[in-house]
C-alpha cells in the first residue's frame, strides 16, 4: 500500500508539473501574439494615423473574417473531435482525413469568389478598385490560414501544447520585421499586406511540425464520409455566423460613425476594438486550449457545470486585474501602444473594458455551447447580440451621443448578453441537479 500511494503521489506531481509547463507555454505563446498585435497596431497608427486606421478598418475586418472562416472555420470542431477520438486511432485518422478534404474544398470556393468579385470587393473594403489585387492575395492566403488552423486544432485536441506554443511563437517572430518593412515602404497597401502576414506567418512552423508528425503518413486521401462531414457543417455554420457577426457589425457601425461624426472618430473606435481583440485573444486561446477539450470529452452535466463555474471565476479575476492596470495607466499605455494622436481614446476606454469584462465572462458559457455543438442556440445568440449592438449604436448616433454613444451601446449589449447567459446557465445547472 505505501508503495502504491507514493507512486500515485509521484504521478500526480508529474501531471501537475506538466500542466504548469503547458500553461506557461500557452501563456508565453499568447503574450507573444498580443505583443505583436499591439506593435502591428502601432505601426499602422504611426505610419497611417487616425484617418488611415479608419480607412484600413474594413480590410482588417475582412482579414479577421477569413482567419476565422478559412477551411470552413472548423478549428473548434477539430479540437472537439480529436479530443474525443484520441483513444480511438482509426476514428481519429478518418476524421482528420475528412477534415483535410473539407477544408481544401471550402478554401477553393472562397478563392474562386475572391477572383470573380475582386473589383467590387476592392471598392467596398479599400475604397478603390486599384486594390483588387489585394483581394486575390487575401483569397490565396486563406489556404495558409486553414492549414495552420487544422494543425493547431489537432495539437490542442491532443493536448500537444508544445507544438501549439511553438507555432505561435515562431510565427509571431516572423511577422514583425516583414510587417514593418511592408508598412513603411508601401503605406496603406503595405499595411494591408501586414495584416495578412500576421495570420499567414503561422503556416511555415505549422508545415514543419506537420511534416515531422507521426500522424502525417497515416492520413490518407479517400472518399469522405457524409455523417462526419455533416458534423463539420454545424461548426462551419457557427463559424460563418460568428465570423460574419463581428466584421459586418463593425462595418455597419464604422460607416455610421464616419457619416455621423467623421473618419477620426471611426479611427479611434477602430483602434479600441483592435486593442480589445488583442487582449481578448489571450482568453479565447486559453479557453480553447484548456477548457473546451475538457467539456468536449465530459458527458456528466454536473461536472460540466462545476467546470464552468471554476473557469468563469478564473477568467473574471484575471481580466479584472489586467483591465484595472490598463485603465489606471491609460494615459501612458494608449500613446505607447498606439501614438499620441490616439490620446482621445483615454476618455472612452473604460466603456470598452467594462463591456469586455462582461463579454469574457460569458465566453466560458459560449464555449460549452460550441463544445456540445449546439448550433441553433449559438446562431441565435450571435445574430441576436450583433443586431442588438447595431441597433443600439445607430440609435445612440441618431440621438447625437456621438462616439461615446457607441461605447455605451457596447456596455449595454454586453450587460444584456451576460445576464441572459448566466440565467440560462442557472437553469441548466438546476435541471442537472434534479437529474
Task: Summarize this structure briefly.
With 435 residues, the protein is mostly helical. The protein is 87% helix and 0% strand. It has one domain (10-434).
Helix content: over 70%
The count of strands amounts to 0
**Can you write the helix and strand succession as a string?**
HHHHHHHHHHHHHH
Question: Number of helical runs?
Answer: 14
What's the number of structural domains? Answer: 1
Structural class: mainly alpha
Rg from C-alpha positions?
22 Å
N-to-C span:
37 Å
- Parts with pLDDT < 50 across at least 5 consecutive residues: none
Mean pLDDT, to the nearest integer, reads: 81
Summarize the biggest pleated sheet: none
**Beta-strand content bin:** under 5%
Give the overall shape, derived from the CA principal axes: globular
Would you mind describing this structure in some detail?
- InterPro entries: Poly_Biosynth_Transport, Polysacc_synth, WzxE.
- This is O-antigen translocase.
- It is a multi-pass membrane protein.
- One of its GO terms (biological process) is enterobacterial common antigen biosynthetic process.
- By secondary structure, this protein is mostly helical.
- The protein has one domain (10-434).
- Helix content is 87%, strand content 0%.
- It contains 14 helices and no strands.
- The longest helix has 68 residues, at 2-69.
- The radius of gyration is 22 Å and the shape is globular.
- The model has no long low-confidence stretch (mean pLDDT 81).
Write the topology of this structure:
Elements: H1 2-69, H2 75-85, H3 89-116, H4 118-126, H5 132-157, H6 161-200, H7 203-212, H8 226-260, H9 263-297, H10 301-328, H11 330-337, H12 349-371, H13 375-398, H14 402-434
Helix pairs in contact: 1-5, 1-6, 1-8, 1-9, 2-3, 2-5, 2-9, 3-5, 4-5, 5-6, 5-7, 6-7, 8-9, 8-13, 9-10, 9-12, 10-12, 12-14, 13-14
Amino acid at each position: 500500500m505505501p508503495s502504491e500511494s507514493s507512486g500515485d503521489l509521484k504521478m500526480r506531481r508529474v501531471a501537475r508539473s506538466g500542466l504548469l509547463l503547458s500553461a506557461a507555454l500557452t501563456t508565453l505563446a499568447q503574450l507573444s501574439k498580443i505583443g505583436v498585435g499591439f506593435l502591428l497596431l502601432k505601426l499602422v497608427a504611426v505610419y497611417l494615423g487616425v484617418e488611415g486606421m479608419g480607412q484600413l478598418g474594413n480590410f482588417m475586418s475582412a482579414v479577421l473574417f477569413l482567419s476565422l472562416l478559412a477551411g470552413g472555420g472548423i478549428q473548434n470542431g477539430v479540437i472537439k473531435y480529436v479530443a474525443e477520438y484520441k483513444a480511438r486511432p482509426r476514428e481519429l485518422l478518418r476524421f482528420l482525413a475528412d477534415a483535410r478534404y473539407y477544408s481544401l474544398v471550402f478554401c477553393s470556393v472562397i478563392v474562386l469568389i475572391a477572383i470573380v468579385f475582386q473589383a467590387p470587393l476592392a471598392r467596398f473594403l479599400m475604397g478603390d478598385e486599384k486594390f483588387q489585387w489585394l483581394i486575390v492575395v487575401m483569397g490565396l492566403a486563406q489556404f495558409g490560414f486553414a492549414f495552420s488552423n487544422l494543425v493547431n486544432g489537432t495539437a490542442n485536441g491532443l493536448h500537444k501544447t508544445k507544438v501549439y506554443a511553438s507555432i505561435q511563437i515562431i510565427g509571431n517572430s516572423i511577422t514583425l520585421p516583414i510587417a514593418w518593412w511592408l508598412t513603411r515602404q508601401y503605406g496603406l497597401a503595405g499595411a494591408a499586406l501586414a495584416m495578412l502576414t500576421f495570420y499567414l506567418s503561422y503556416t511555415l512552423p505549422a508545415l514543419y511540425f506537420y511534416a515531422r508528425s507521426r500522424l502525417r503518413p497515416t492520413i490518407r486521401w479517400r472518399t469522405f464520409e457524409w455523417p462526419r462531414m455533416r458534423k463539420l457543417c454545424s461548426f462551419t455554420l457557427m463559424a460563418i455566423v460568428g465570423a460574419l457577426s463581428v466584421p459586418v457589425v463593425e462595418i455597419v457601425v464604422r460607416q455610421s460613425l464616419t457619416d455621423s461624426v467623421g473618419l477620426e472618430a471611426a479611427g479611434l473606435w477602430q483602434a479600441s476594438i483592435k486593442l480589445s481583440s488583442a487582449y481578448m485573444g489571450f482568453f479565447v486561446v486559453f479557453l480553447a486550449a484548456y477548457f473546451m477539450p475538457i467539456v468536449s470529452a465530459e458527458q456528466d452535466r454536473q461536472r460540466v457545470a462545476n467546470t464552468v463555474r471554476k473557469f468563469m471565476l478564473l477568467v473574471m479575476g484575471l481580466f479584472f486585474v489586467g483591465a484595472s492596470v490598463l485603465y489606471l495607466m491609460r494615459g501612458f499605455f494608449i500613446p505607447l501602444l498606439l501614438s499620441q494622436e490616439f490620446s482621445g481614446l483615454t476618455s472612452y476606454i473604460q466603456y470598452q473594458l467594462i463591456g469586455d469584462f462582461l463579454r469574457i465572462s460569458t465566453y466560458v458559457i459560449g464555449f460549452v455551447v460550441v463544445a456540445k455543438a449546439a448550433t441553433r442556440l449559438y446562431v441565435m445568440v450571435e445574430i441576436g447580440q450583433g443586431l442588438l449592438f447595431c441597433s443600439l449604436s445607430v440609435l445612440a448616433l441618431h440621438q447625437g451621443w456621438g462616439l461615446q454613444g457607441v461605447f455605451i451601446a457596447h456596455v449595454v449589449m454586453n450587460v444584456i448578453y451576460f445576464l441572459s447567459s448566466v440565467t440560462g446557465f442557472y437553469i441548466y445547472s438546476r435541471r442537472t441537479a434534479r437529474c
